[in-house]
């Protein structure tokens, strides 16, 4: 049984999906209470803004509390899948009999290499005048520890929600894997529309980057019969984003190695991500040969 075909297991009435999404949303909101208290303590205000939330991640404690809310959602989703949908937890993760950790680490490693290469492009082409090296060992290594422990919860929650739960639900609805891929990829991109990058650079510049990432994550999950490579991509991407570069327009204003004093973005960033995605698929297909496997679903 393929990864998407596993969507037919368990109980799949539409109201179970609505109930699960409500429970998961409520759990993540409960998970944000410590962060809300921290933000209020830092800047007492009855209505915190996105800037207040972004500013909270400029401290390691604030970042940890931000990521903690995703851990609440992660646990809630797994419990709903098991007890409401009566599915095996692996059903929304992979078509294999067990989780392939090798694929997760391989995907993370390849995407990390590609990401580091794209991070180095501005340096190689002399566009580094606005970059400031801000390494502070006492803060950076705490950031690194927090990232390694808590980002896997955040990225796994997003992957299980979009590439697992919602993509399988969309497949049940449309009975077409490509419709499921397009829908969940676009929703994934739009869910990031409140990020500071979107406000700073414009929706037509920033959102396509998220949508392309959504397509990459969903495509490899479908073709490789499981989310392991996608889990690796996502966790490597977010950890590196947190520890390498930050700026006033970044979602995560962390104690990263570099701060960009004059950040900019253009449609070329989407092109770079697209090229990296194509290279990633090519490399992974060389190893796992998933492009040549016959599929039994539409």
Structure explained in plain terms:
- GO terms for molecular function: endopeptidase activity; metallopeptidase activity.
- The chain crosses the membrane at residues 14-41, 61-84, 104-125, 137-157, 178-195, 201-222, 229-247, 267-284.
- The protein has 298 residues and is mainly α.
- Helices cover 67% and strands 3% of the residues.
- The protein is built from eleven helices and three strands.
- It has helices at 14-31, 33-42, 50-56, 60-83, 101-124, 137-174, 177-190, 196-201, 203-223, 228-243, 267-288; strands spanning 131-133, 245-247, 258-260.
- Strands 1-3-2 form a three-stranded mixed β-sheet.
- The model has no long low-confidence stretch (mean pLDDT 90).
Task: Write a concise synopsis of the structure shown.
The protein is mostly helical and 298 residues long.
Instruction: State which percent range the strand residues make up.
Output: under 5%
Look at the structure and give the mean pLDDT. Answer: 90
The H/E string reads: HHHHHEHHHHHEEH
How many beta-strand runs? 3
Largest sheet: number of strands, sense, barrel closure: 3 strands, mixed
Shape category: globular
Structural class computed from helices and strand pairing: mainly alpha
Residue share in helix: 55-70%
GO molecular function: endopeptidase activity; metallopeptidase activity
Domain CAAX prenyl protease 2/Lysostaphin resistance protein A-like: 143-239
Organism: Candidatus Odoribacter faecigallinarum
Transmembrane segments: 14-41, 61-84, 104-125, 137-157, 178-195, 201-222, 229-247, 267-284
């Amino acid at each position: 049984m393929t990864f998407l075909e596993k969507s037919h297991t368990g109980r799949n009435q539409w109201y179970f999906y609505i109930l699960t999404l409500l429970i998961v949303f409520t759990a993540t909101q409960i998970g944000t209470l410590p962060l809300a208290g921290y933000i209020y303590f830092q800047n007492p205000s009855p209505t915190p803004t996105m800037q207040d939330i972004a500013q909270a991640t400029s401290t390691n404690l604030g970042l940890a509390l931000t990521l903690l809310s995703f851990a609440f959602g992660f646990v809630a989703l797994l419990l709903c899948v098991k007890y409401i949908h009566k599915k095996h937890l692996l059903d929304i993760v992979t078509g294999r009999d067990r989780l392939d950790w090798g694929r997760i680490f391989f995907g993370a490693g390849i995407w990390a290499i590609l990401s580091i290469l794209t991070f180095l492009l501005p340096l190689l082409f002399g566009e580094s005048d606005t970059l400031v090296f801000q390494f502070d060992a006492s803060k950076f290594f705490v950031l690194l520890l927090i990232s390694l422990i808590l980002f896997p919860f955040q990225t796994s929650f997003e992957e299980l929600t979009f590439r697992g739960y919602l993509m399988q639900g969309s497949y049940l609805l449309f009975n077409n894997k490509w419709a499921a891929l397009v829908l969940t990829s676009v929703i994934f991109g739009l869910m990031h529309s409140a990020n500071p990058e979107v406000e700073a650079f414009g929706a037509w510049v920033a959102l396509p980057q998220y949508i392309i990432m959504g397509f990459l994550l969903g495509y490899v999950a479908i073709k490789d019969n499981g989310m392991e490579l996608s889990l690796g991509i996502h966790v490597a991407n977010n950890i590196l984003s947190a520890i390498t570069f930050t700026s006033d327009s970044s979602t995560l204003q962390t104690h990263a190695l570099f701060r960009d004093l004059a950040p900019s973005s253009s449609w070329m960033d989407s092109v770079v991500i697209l090229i990296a995605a194509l290279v990633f698929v090519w490399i992974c297909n060389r190893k796992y040969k998933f492009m040549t496997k016959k599929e039994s679903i539409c």
